[in-house]
Every structure is written in C-alpha cells, then in structure tokens.
Records
---
Amino acid sequence: MIYLDNAATSFPKAPGVADAVSRFITDIGANAGRSSYSTARQSSRIIYQTRMLLAKLLNTDNSSNICFTMNTTQALNIALKGIVKPGFKVLTSPYEHNSVMRPLRQLESQMNISIDFIKINNYEINWQHLKKQLEQKPDLLIITAASNVNGYLLPYNKIARMAHQYDIPVILDAAQVLGSNPVDAKDFDIICFPGHKGLLGPMGTGGLYVSDSISLQSLMPGGTGSRSSSEYQPDDMPDLLEGGTPNLPGLAGLQVSLQFLLDTGIETIAARKLLLTSQFLQELAEIEGIIIHSPISPYLQAGVVSFTSLSCSISDLAWEFDRANIACRMGMHCAPAAHKHLGTYEVGGTLRFSPGYFNTPADIESAAKLLKGMNK
Amino acid sequence: MNRQIVITFNSTHSAMAAEDIFKELKLDFELIPTPREISAECGFALLVREMDIAEIFLICNQNQIKYDNIYQIKYNDGGKEYEKSD
C-alpha cells in the first residue's frame, strides 16, 4: 500500500516503536508511580523519560507541566472545560477541527459562551480586524496551528504574541504541526498535541502542556499513586490531570519515536514533507479539471493537499484510489467549519492527501499518475 | 547504618527527576516503598545513604527538586525513628 493519510495518523511509525510497545507488554507490564519493585520502577521511568523528551521538543524546563492524554481531543476538552466559564467570549479561527468546534459548541449551549472567528481571506489574516477583535477583550483565544483539511499553516506565533499583548490566554491545537514545525512552550498558555501523528508514536497517546499562568480542573479525577491518603485530586502537576492508569505500552512507543524525531531533527522531517507536498501540488496543477483547495506556497503549508475534480465526484476518485491500494481521505475530515470557510462544504468536502516522512517521490508519482488517468 | 535520609515527593515525576540528579551526582541511594511511619501519601520514596541532611537540602534546592519532606533515620534500642527536618 502507498499510505498518504498522515494527517489522520502517521504510518509507518518511527523505527523501533512497535518493538518498544511489544517489549513493554511482554517484559515489563507493571503499573507506574504506585510501587518501587523493579518493573514498576521501569514503568515510572518510561513515563518520566517520555515527558522529558517532550519538554525538549517544546523547549521548556517545566516538564512537570506536560500531562499525558489519550489524544488531542481529550487534551483540548481538558483545556477548554478547565478554563471556560459561563458567558465567556472565545475567539477562534475558521479552520478548526471538530476536536475544538464540538467542545466549543457544547459550551455554547451549556454555558452560553459566544464564539467569534478571526477573518482570513486567501490565507491572509486580516490583522486590522484581529486587532479590533482583541480590543474587545475576548476571554480566550484557541487556534489550530495548521488546517487538517488543506495544510494551511496559520501564523500561530504571531497571533499568540498579539493576543498576549491584550493579556488573552492562548490555547494552541498543535495536532498537525508538532514533530515538523517548531512549537515553543513559552509562546502559549496551553498546547494540545497527539502522539500518533507528527510525533510518529502509537495511537492512544497525546497530551497537553499547561503554563504556570493557567490553573485547570481535573476532568477525570482518580488514582495517581500520589497523595493517596486523600480522597481529593492532588493539585500538583502532572498528577492533577493524569488520573488512572495511563497507556504505558503507547508511551513506551512514544519514547522511542520522540528520540527518533530529536535525532533526525524536525527541520529534516519538515523538509521531506514539504518536498513531497510541493511535488504533488505541481502534478495536480497540470491536470485539467482539478481544483486545488490548499495553499501552494511552501511557507503556508504543513503538508496536506486537498482538491476536488470537475469531471469526477470525490467519492468515485476515492474508490479508484482504494482499488489501487493508495490510502487517502475523502470527505469532511471532521472539520465542517473549515470546509464551510473553503466553500467545499456543499460538495461534501474534498479528497485529501497528506504525505509523511517515510513517503517517497515515487509514491507521489503513483498517486498523480492514477489521477491523470481518471481525469483524461 | 548511620546518616540515612528518606525523601518523599508530591509526584512520581518529581521522584524520577530527583533520581536522575542523584544518579548524576553518584549518590548512594535507592527507591524504596515509602515507610508507613512517615507517610501514606505515595507508594515510594528515595533513601539516600551517607549524606548529611544539610547536604541533601542543598542538593534539592540547587537542583529545584520538588520534594514533599525530608527525614533523617535515627536508630535506637533496636528500632528506628524518622525525624522530619524543616
């Protein structure tokens, strides 16, 4: 199979990940943070070392403020539901995934919050308008770093800096960028991320970084192995947000993938992804009847290409790719807000290709060749 | 048997961070089940051998180790006591 659906989850994983997961289950298997026998110690050290590698990636000394979750969705729910209060004014982007929009819509109906959107036209932020929006003092800004629909890389550092000038806390959804674009913990109040996408680790891993300026409530209080004589959730991070047994096999895999990323260098990974993305965009531009819904400039790209065709429905195209054993994703990509913004909602979405570090130019060539044949 | 110190922590992460630093400093230490005489809070604590309590405080503070409490073990009449240090 040619796998071009890395925006959904990366495949293959980094070398050694599967072995680490298997080794944990076969040879270690103990719970972490509860006991001092040898395998329990090994488990505790896996979590600790994985957290330290993430701290390195996020450029922070504050490793205890990184908490593990199942995925980005859980991290975003912890962040939003921990911060938002009744009547809050929340500013966001028109490119948000449902992992942001659904919690926001739920809070809108439950807590009567208002949601406003940053204006973006042709991948240009309307900075004047954003300034006016920030002057109205929203209580929170939450933005995706890059669109999972079309790879548009938002100027997330600049937006966050501007929001901070008005003392507005910023949550970053780093689902599509962590592992290939720099994200610095100092620039954000909360960063939510998956372990299974750009970090090349197993599914069921993710997390959030929470700066000292933010105090969150636990959405899932439970056993932590610490402060065990109390019936109340400890205030100490990371335990505050980590009730219950974590996905230790997954974190053992994530430890290996993070080491691979840091050894390889995220610039190298980004360069490979952008090379393949540019190659695919170039091939698409040569095919008559293909409408590209992604930014073309590599400076605006996180490595996701979306398009529709004038001659075929996207479902027919997706079917042909299935039959050719090429993995891509058709439809709404769990981001109806982004498709409404792009004007692709009414046609049922787009066909999306997202190359990863382990793809080759030949993979892209195969996908483009098939598409050229279908659009003759 | 003398000069034994037990350190308790607020989280496993803090205990692991301390362990890393103690390893680097080549201290004689081990992870032990937290003595029930001093705390029922956490599953484990660090036992450090052949160190003065003042040295341990200094190391913890210099390395920003987030500990809960530090205890000196005192042996008497065949038993032992954990003396909490402030």
---
Amino acid sequence: MKDTIKMIVVLTLIATLAGLGLALMNEATQADIEDNARRAILDAIHQVLPDADPPNPCQRYDAIFDNEPDRDAVCIEGATVFRARKGKDVVAMAMEVVGDNAYSGTISALVGLRMDDGMLMGIKVLAHAETPGLGSLISDCQLMSGQMVGHTPSSIKWAVKKDGGDIDQLTGATISTRAMINAVAKAQAMWRDHRQTIINGDAMPADGGCHVP
Amino acid sequence: MSPKKTTTLLEDFRKGLWKDNPVFVLLLGLCPTLAVTTSAYNGLGMGIATAFVLLCSNILISLIAPIVPHGVRIPVYVVVIATFVSAVDMALKAWMVELSQGLGLFVPLIVVNCIILGRAEAFASRNNVLRSILDAIGMSLGFTLALFVLGAIREIIGAGTITLFQLGETLIQFRVMGEDYPGILTMILPPGAFITLGLLLALKNTIQRRLDARATRSAATRTATKHPATS
C-alpha cells in the first residue's frame, strides 16, 4: 500500500512539473512561432505576386502589393482568398488550392492571379508527396511554373499535351503535371466566378477561420 | 562508487562511438536513421536534435532515479523524454524555422527513438550524473556520426552533392560528382537507405573482426614472451 501511494505521488509530481515546464516553454515561444507562421505566409504571397509583366518564375521581384494581404482576405465558399492591393485597388489575388489526383495524395499550392485578366503571376508548391526526382519537379521554376506563369485562362489550353492541351508533361510525371494544372484551374474558377466578391467583399476578421456556411 | 563498476569514465564516453554504436551495433533508432538520411545535412540535424534530448534526459533521469519507484520508472522516463522533445520542437519552430522545416516530422519522433529510452533505462538510471553525461555525449556523437556518414553516402551517390549546412538562403554544398552526373534516384529513396546501412554494417563488422583477430594475436604473443615456461 505504501509503495502504491509512493508511485502515485512520484508520477503525479513529475507529470505536474513536466506540464509546468512545457507551459512556460509555450509561453516563451508562442509569439515567435506565430510570427514565423505569418512571415511564411506573407513571403509565399510575395513570391506568387511579383511586380513584373510577364514575370519570370525563377527570379525574385518586389511584391506587387503594398498592403498586408494576409490581413485583408475574403472567405468565399470555404476558401481563403488573399487580396493584394496597390493603393486602394485590388490588383491581384492569391489563394491556396489543392491539386486533386496527384500521383501520391494531393498537392497543395499557393496560386497568384492578376485581377483584371486572370493572368497567372506565380505558383508555389507548399506541400506534396510526389516521387523525388520525377514528380517532385513540379516545384521546378523552369520546367513547371515556367510553362504556366504569364498565361491567362484563355491564352493557352490548360491541359497536358497528352490530353490535347499546350503544357508539356514532366517526363515520367504526367499525373503530377495534371494535378498542378488542376490546382491552377481551381484558382481560375474562383477568379472567374467570384471576381466582384473578391474586389468588394468584406475582409474576414484576422483570427476568424474560413468555413463553409 | 560500487565495486561492480569496472568501466572507466573514458570508456563510458568512447563506447558509443564504436563498440556500442547505437546505429551500427545496437541497431536502435532505425526509423529516423533510415528516413531522414537523404542528405548529409539532414543526418547531421537529426543527430544534433537527438543529442540535445538525450543529454537532457540522461542528466535529469540520473538525478531523479533514486526517488523513482521501480514500478513507475518507465512512465516517468517517457514523461521526461516527451517533455524535452516537445520543448525542442517548440524551440526549433520559434527560433530555427528552416531547420525545423527540414527535420519536419522527425523531431516529434525522437520521443519514440529507442536510443533515448534505452539509455535512460540501461545507463542513466543506474549511474551518476557525470557518467550519464559522458554516456549521452558518446552515444549522440556515435549516432550523429552514423547518420552523417549514411546521409553523405546517399547524397553523394544519389544526387552527386554533399550538403554541410542549409538554412534558408544560406547553403554550404559541394558538388562531388561532375556537373553532368544524373544521380541515382534509388539512393535517395528508402531502398537506398537499407542498401547503404547493410553495406556499412558489413564494413563495420569486417573491420571489427580484423581488430579482434589482431588483438588476440598480440595477446597471445605477449603471454608467450612473458611466460615462456608455462606453455
């Protein structure tokens, strides 16, 4: 009996101390972690919305916007659309999209489109699980983005050549290429169907999540 | 010091490097070993993160071991280790973002790395703080070295480069193979990890056998010259 009580006391004590330590650590790091997360989003938006016409996806430019797009987002059908403004005008949009039917799972990417004609200004792969060396080339600025950036929804046929489109499939990774085109298509659909909401809609609160109503 | 301890402090430190190397001899922690060693730098980063947790947990466990009842020792060790891993994970996310992105999933996975629980149970709980620190440093060096070698071999053959440091835009990388070297993809993929580990184990065992044979021979000669009459 005495042993049992000792066990309970020791384990409880150590677990409490561990919890206390972690709480302090969390307190010390939380602000920095949130700051990093925000900087990562802003940097990604900067990369897909460069101030160049037409942009070269392998180069880094100044950002086209002078606001803070992550604080000026609209929520449309469950998707968060970041608005990039120059002065007061919404000049471009960026949104995170998921490319379906990738070779392995899905591909998540941030896509930037120009507001007046829907031109693809940049695309950045955020997460994927494609085969290293083959499908992973979707992140290659030259091979993948280079073929798509600078085109509006109507200036080329958005499909791989195998399907009768204008985009060269990556060698050995046709499925990954299709998933990338699918990702861009989702952003283009958002631009086509909801342009007015994106320009005039109310910004969602900074901490409010975006959910399907 | 109790009489059963016959190892020296130096031995406590040295055994992790070769004789009891966690990867090549004990074959512990193979999940991080095989999964993260796609480049020399990833191996190095994982090794250093593990080293930090191992050092902290060894110190703390050797301190609290006398008051921990036998029946709850494993849960206590797990709580201690999990706490340090969570703390490291938060610290990396807050102050070393790029490294934390590179190591990704594997930092939380340190918690199930059997090296750490193994050293807690087999060494830190039975030895004093100084010995536990030496044990932790030796074991982590052995682990880091093994991961680095594994990562370097896979990266050189798989991609033709060797990456020593990578933080955001800063990159220290050398091209070992020629500019046109296409890289052998298999080496970066999981099969390459198993093949490389197997070959390294074979190499380590061969060297060990040679050393053992030499030690036996020189011991035999020594006995023969010391006591010529006995034989």
---
Amino acid sequence: MLSVTDLQKTYSSGDEALKGVSLDVTGNETVSMIGPSGAGKSTFIRCVNRLTEPTGGSVELDGLEITGLSGGELRDARRDMGMIFQEYNLIERLTVMENVLSGRLGYVSTWDAFRRKFAGDDIARAYEVLDRVGLKGHEDNRADELSGGQRQRVGIARAILQRPKILLVDEPTSSLDPETSRAVMDLLTEIAAEDDIPVLINIHEVDLAVEYADRVVGLRDGQKVFEGDPPDLDETAKGQIYRGEEIPEGAGPAGKVVAADAPGEAVTEEGDLRST
Amino acid sequence: MTDYRTWERRTPQQRVGRYVLILIAVVATAVSWQLLQINYSYLGTAPVEFMDLVNRMYPPNVGYTGAVVSPLIETVHIAILGTALAILMSIPVSLLGAENTTPNRYTFLLGKFIISASRSVNVIIWALVFVIVLGSGALAGTLAIAVRSIGFCSKLIAESIEEIDPGQVEAIQATGANSVEAAIYGIVPQIKPAFIGVATYRWDINVRASTIIGFVGAGGIGVELNTSINFFAWQQVLTILIAILGIVIVSEVVSAYLRRKVR
Amino acid sequence: MATEQQPRREWSRPTAFYNHYVKWAVYAAIAVFLVWSAWNMRISLDRIVTGWGAAVGLIQGMVPPEVTTQFKNDLLIEGLVESVAMSVIATIVGVLLSIPVAFMAAENIAPKPVYWTGRGIITGSRALHELIIAIIAVKAVGIGALAGVIALSYKTIGFFAKLLAEEIEDIDTGQMEAVEATGASRIQTMLFGVIPQVMPRIVGLSIYRWDINIRHSTIVGIVGAGGIGGTLLNSFDQYDYDFFLTIILAIIAIVMIGELISTYVRGRIQ
C-alpha cells in the first residue's frame, strides 16, 4: 500500500505547490485525484516517485520510506511504481516492443539494455501484455506511427511490464478524445482488478473521475479539501474544490474530510494561475 | 492622432537605421575598393590568359589517370577518418556544450570555447599546424580535418540535444533505469537522426576540404595538384580537377542518400 | 487468463537494412574500411614520439607570439586590411552577380532551359574549393588581391544564388500575379512582385556571406591570391613560428569580429 503523510513541495521560486497532503491508497482500489489546474495534482504524483523532489513529509510504499532513498535504492523503489504520463512520453523513434520492454530496464544490465537483450520471460510477457491492451501485431511499429489512444496503451503496457505494486497515472486522458479516454480508463481499472494493484489517477474530467473511481480526492491550492466516495461529490464539494467556496455551516455530508488547517487560506484564487 | 495625408512605410528611427546601414555599406565598399589598388589592366588581359590556360589544359591527360587513383583514395580516407575522429570527439564536447546536459556553468563555457576555437581556424591553417608537428602526410591532414570538424559537429549536435523532449527521459527514469540506460533509451534515439545527418553532411564538406589540404603538404590529391601546377603540367591539372569534381559529386550523392535514409 | 498459444520468447529489433546479416555485413565493411584508412596513415610509435617532440618545440617556438617587430606588425595590419577589403568587394560583386542567377535558377519563374542553366552555374560554382578557384584566378590575372576577389566572388555565386533561388521558390505567387494583373512587364513583375518579398533575405544572406568571405579571404593568400594568407605562409616557410602564432591569433580575432557583426546585424534585420 501507498501511504503519503504531510507531503510538501515548495519550489525554489517560493511557490508552494503542496502544503502538506496526506493520502493512503490500498488494496486494488482506484483513487481519482481531481482539482483545478495548478492545484498540485501532478506535483503530488511526481513527488511519490520523486521525479519531483518533495521538500517535506513522507512517502511509504509497502513500509519502505521513499523520500530518503539515494541513487540505487531509489531506482529499485521506482521499479515498483508504474507511471503513465499525460503526453505518453514514449520513445517516439523506437518500436512499440522496445518501449514496452523499457519497463524492464530496472532489471537488466546496462550492456544488455544497450543491445536490446531482454530475458525470454520478459519478451513473452511483453507479447502477452500487448495483446491485453489491444495492440497485438504492432510490436514492430514505431511509436510515432501510432494514434494517441494507441500510444497511451503502449504507455500502460510499459508500466505493467514493470510488475508494479502501484500505478501512478498523471492525466491519462487529457490528450485523448472522449471515447478513447473511456477505453483507456476501462483498461486501467481492469488491470487494477486483475493484477490486484491500486491505481492513483489524477484527472480533471470530473465525470470520468466519479464513474471509475472507488474514492475521490479533491485538491485545491496545494491542500486536500475533499476526500470521499464518488456519490459524495455533490455541487457543494465541487464548488469548494473548483471555486474555493466556503462550506456552509453543517452542510458537509458524511465522509467529507476538510483540510484540517485553516480552510480560509485555501480560498484564494492565486492557485489557479500557478502551473504544476 | 495619425496623420492620414502622408504615408510612410517606416518609423523615422527605422529609416535612420536603414540609411546608416546603407551608408556604412557604401563607405565600406568605397574604402575597400581604394585599399585594394587593383590593377585593372590585368582584368583586361584576364579573358585572354584564361582562354590560354584552357587551351593548355585541354585535352586532359588520360594517361595520367592511373596516377590519380591512389591519391584520390587517400583523399577519401582522410575525409572519412577525419570525420569519424571528429564525431567521436564531438560526443563529449556536445554534451558539455548543451545547456541541459552540461554538469555546471564552467563545463558549459569549456564546451563553448572548444566549439568556437575549432570553428574559427580554417582547415588549411590547422593543416599547416599539424604539418609542422607531424611532418607532411595524410596523418596531418586527417587531424586537421578532425580538429576543424569538432566545432561544427559539436555545435549542431549540442543544439539537437537542447531540443530533446525531457518527458521521454523522465519516463525511462520512472521505470527505475539508471542514468546511462536513460541516456541510451531516452536521449540517443532522439538525437540519432541529427547525429547521422551531421556526420554525413560534414563528411561531404570534408571530402572537399581534403582535396586542398595537400597544398600545404597534408596529403591527398592536393599534393598532386600542387606539384602539377608548379611544373605547369596543365593537362595533368585538368585530369586532377575532373577527378576532384567526380569525387565531390559522388560524396554529395552518397551523403544526400544517407540523410534521406535516416528519419 | 488463458492464452491460446505459447507466446514467442524472442524478439529482435527490425533493422533499417534488409535483414540482420546485411546489417552486420555493413558494419563489418565500415570497420574494415576504417582500419584500412588508419593503416594508410602509417601511424607508428616512432612518429608519435617525434611528433610529440616537434609539438613541444613548436609551442616553445610560438610562445610568446611576436608583437614587437615594427615591420612585421605593418605586414600583419596590411594583410588583415587587404583580407577584409577583399571580403567586402567580393561580397558586393558576388551578390550582384548572384541575383540574376538566382532568378534564373528559381523553378517557379524561370522557363526550363533558363532554369537548368542557372542550376548549372550554381553547381559549377559550388563544386570546387575556393583555393582551387583561387589558383586558376592567380594564373589568369596574376598574383594579388584581384585573384582573391575573383575567387571569392565566384564562390559567393554558388552559395548566394542557391539560397536566394530557394527563397524565390517559396514566395507568395499571389502577390506576383497581382502585379502581373495590373499589366506590368516581366521585369516590372520581378521588381514589384518578387524583389520586395525577398529583400530582407537578400540583405541577411549578404551579411552572412560576408562573414564567410572573411574566413576565406584569410586563406586564399596561401596560393598567392592576396590577403593575410600569404604572410602566414611566408612565416611558416621561414620557421618564424612566433609570428605565425601572432597571425593565427589575429585571424581568429578578425573572424570572430566578423561573426559578431554578422550575427548582430542579422538579428536586427529579422
């Protein structure tokens, strides 16, 4: 399970992207993180595998503290976290197979990586996973020959080839059309169920978040302002997440967790302008 | 506010700027013309002299063709080895000279310095220097070509490194790969087309350059050409010129083909 | 989940060549060729040792660069000034000659026979190195700056006309047709429909070419075509290595100044 406690990120410019966010993701649940642009969703996910270095707080994956790890230890920890990106981040000029197999890079020697020599098991599994994400027969295509939806499937295949303990998914659908978005979300939740791993998705389409998630978390201005089951995400909650409205006295439905410290500060508009 | 009765294409500052520029150009031309003190009578006799030269050159000395082959091969060797050396050395130099891969500001400046030092000295001057050091021969020529090419290759490769998509590198890092693997998978494929393009383009340029470094004794067909000119063996000169033309055209075709092949 | 068959356990990267045997054959051929090239260089330990000694001697002979002898300084200044003057004149002459050639070599406005003539002139100019052209020019008009100007102008045509022709091929033909529709003659169409569109490019390219011509003007003297190159070769022949270094440093300085000016002016024009 992933357990994040009081995660903070202050950029050297003084921008506070995360002001102490805590979150647990367990079992095989799908957790959607929603919030306006600049709320800190991407920063949160990137701090978990330390593509962005957090400035405070702790991240634990199955009891292993990630934040203090150095070079080799961090690389070993990253092998357990599959990441899927908004812009797919495939190696455009390599084949689909090389992209998928790159998920195993944490396990092969540099020399074998250079020669594109991977274990037979990995290759067999790569074929299997390509079949599973619906890209059978595309292994020798170059990534830049594929459509957006297909590329995102390659990205997913790369992440599952890692045999991760958790999938971190950063805006998987914002470069895709609505129909493809649904197909990608279906695939992600299916994998979570079949492989029995949790998925942390940050997403800005609220309807997709509600439809696919087991739990919804709302971020605003670097703070968690909502956490609860999808049905609890009512207009009041949305208003609070997206427009920073004060919660009317006693109106909060059960399950809603408001950020403990000073909600008044979270009600500023400047967060909307900040890019993650 | 605006006076619609007059129409002017540019603002007054722009016009003054243009006039100053034109004035500088005119003055520079006039002064240069004055300084050169060209004797125009030579210009008058030039066509006659030129035709005379052509007459003495034609027909090319066919019997001499055999003697041209070996220096021609040496020329190609110089171009290829020089380019290969330059490309090898430009890998570290371009990594230093690219803003996103250089370790710190001093290494960046070092990279930039190597690039501009190599570029601002002409290949024939490098050839002179290496002839002094190593004696005349193809080795001096190869090194001259290599050293001159480092700057050119490194500059272009560094530019393509600066333009890579960092997301691809990040994605590889996120799988737990080490930094060398991240470079092999994340950076190399992205700069490979530029790399091969630069190498073949520079090779093409180097074939031309290697035909003339022989003038200062640095090997290749230029040595032959220089000797023939000094002995006024004009028919041999024409043979050599035709051979040079041939090899330049072949290298241009090959280089264009290779660059098309790599996307 | 049940797969219908055992998935393949092997995969190899598709190659740009026809198959992997061809790929290895090509790599082997390249390796053999490089070894052959290196073999032909006759590199021996002996040469490297002598070379190292010579290099140390050369550097000791070069440093410090010679700047104290008055007549040498005069020679240096004279050569540099001549080089720069040659580059200016060659650029002007070359550009003036290039413009008609560029129009000839633009596929969209020139008739086919004219087009091929224009292309031919460009290829002829580009094929031979400036030093070879300079040698021929020296034979035709004698030793001196005139030969250098001729050689550099000739080389300018190939460069300038090629790039300008490409620019002309990219122009907006609508503007040209609009001028033609007013009843303008062919020359007037060029003047009003084409020249204004490519004028910034002409200025930018001229300055760029001037920058290149400065570089070349410093070396054509090696074959007697004027400029600092002759002085450089003399100092080399007379083993006057400290003056040799002074000249090289001066050449680097003048080339860098030229590049700075060219970059600055082109930046301002755009």
---
Amino acid sequence: MHELSIAQNIMDIVNEQLSVNNLSRVTKIGMRIGKLAAIEPASLKFCFEIIARDTKAEGAVLEIDSVPIRYRCNDCQLDFILDELDFICPNCMRNRLEIISGRELQVVEMEAY
Amino acid sequence: MKIGIVKDILEANDMIAEGNRRLFKGKGTLVMNLMSSPGAGKTTLLEKSISALKDRVGIGVIEGDIQTELDAERIHKKGVEVVQINTGGACHLDATMVSQAIEKLDLTNIDILFIENVGNLVCPAEFRLGEDMKVMILSIAEGEDKPLKYPLMFHESQVLIINKIDLLPYCDCDIMRLRENSLKINPNLNIFEISCKTGRGLDVWYEWLIKKVGGRH
C-alpha cells in the first residue's frame, strides 16, 4: 500500500551508492522482498519507474527476488516453508512458531556505470 | 559494474525508531502504538481511558490521521497533551513523524503515551515507531476471520482489544472463534473484551494499564 514511499527509499539508496562509487547511471537494481512485507512487486515497479524518470535511474530494471515465509517451530524445532501465514507447525501441530524469513525488504545488488 | 550491497529499505526508519525508544525509556514513558481498521473505536477507547486514568497517571497522545484534526480536538477536550500528525495520504505513521511530534510534548509528565496510528490493518505493522507495545483494536462487527486475513498485525501485537461487544446479539461474529483465530496466530496475545458504549470490561483494561506503568503512582 505504501509502494511509492518504498520506491523513494530505493532511489535514496541508489543515489548514495552511485555517489560513493562515483558512477553516473544505474541499469539494474536487485532486491529481496519477503512475502510478508506487504509490498506488491508490480506496484513497486510502477512507482519506481515514475520516480526514476529524468534521473540517473531512468529505465533501470528492478529485479525482485521473492523470499518465502520460513518458520521455526519452538516446540519441535522443525524448520519449514509455508506459502501462507498459517501459524501451525505441520509436524507437531502446535503454534509456537518464529518467523525466520519473509519480512525482507532489501536492496542487495546494483549494476551501474 | 556490479555493486553488491545489502541495505534494508526500512533501516532508516528502524534507526529513528530506536532513537525514539531510547528517549522514551530515558523519560520513563510507556508507549503504546494503537492500531486498528477505521472505526474500530481507537479514539473512543482513548477518551474513556483518559477520563478514567488521568488522575492516576500522566497521559499524552499522538494522533495520526491522513487528514483533519478532529481526533486531536476530541482528545484535547479530555484535558491531556495531544499532538496531531497528518500524514497527507500516507497509510501509516513512521518513526520520523513520531520523532517530530514528541518535540512538541513534555514527556517528563507523561507516564503513558498513546500513539494512535492511521486506521489500517496492513501497513502500520511494518513500521516501528519506538513503542513498547503494539495494541490492536478490533470491533466485533468486523468478523472473526480478520486474524486469518490480516495475520501480520495480530502476530506483531502484544495486546488485542475486542471492542463493541455490546453488538454481539446483532452481529454474526463468533467471539470464541475470534479468540481462537487470534491465539492461533499469536499465542502470547493479551486479549481484552470491552464495550466503550456500556463500559463492560474497561476496568480490567485500566487496571492492566496501571500495572504496566509500574505502580509508580
């Protein structure tokens, strides 16, 4: 729902990296977005495209790696992946679960010149 | 040229939230982030809680809304310090908005600071503000399936307040199922059943709050 402000944050990270590395143009931005991050990739790409217009990131591709929701059961220690947020351990059927991944919202890589 | 970086997009927010948290801790202020969908009764619960508790503890309020100062005016009438944040369209409060708002509050006299988030069951769960506790309010007219549909909010909260229980005879909501669904997602949830209309259950909530403040009064 707040993809536009996330796109702005990505832009800030990109600009910082370009300036640190003394580069003038970014062509690709690699991201990891967890399924729990409440971010819609298509909407984020759309927002980023608009924000990137007339900047050093114009036309840059957002490559989004979707991170599944991984849990660890605090009772039987099972480590497992579920597509949905269903807080039941498939092994012991209890619900003392910890979310190990799925909330990521990261820029992990850039291609720039 | 390929640049490898791992940068959390919400890192800036988390850092500011941590600053807020330290400031609150230093002043001894307990901070509650109130979250719900629009109309669940956040502001009414605040009005009731302020009336009941303001002689026993110092209370401050930060009101978050997309627009208008209507809620701040309601809280102001109750005679406590209040700051309104208008997000201008943003669907949640973030740590920067809160850090600007606390500059306008004298925290030394505030034992409990309530931060009323923007009415929304999704985005506020993603943004730390520096709070001690996330408190969710759900009115029973919203239905018992909400924990299953908006699980992250229930998972992140320490407290669930089920409001408007006076409407139970008129709604199809199964409150036992609502409790089950909520505890399935978060077995550690503290659940309160209340009606701001009739006052039922409010005393239990007030006493719990007083205990949380640490019995300093």
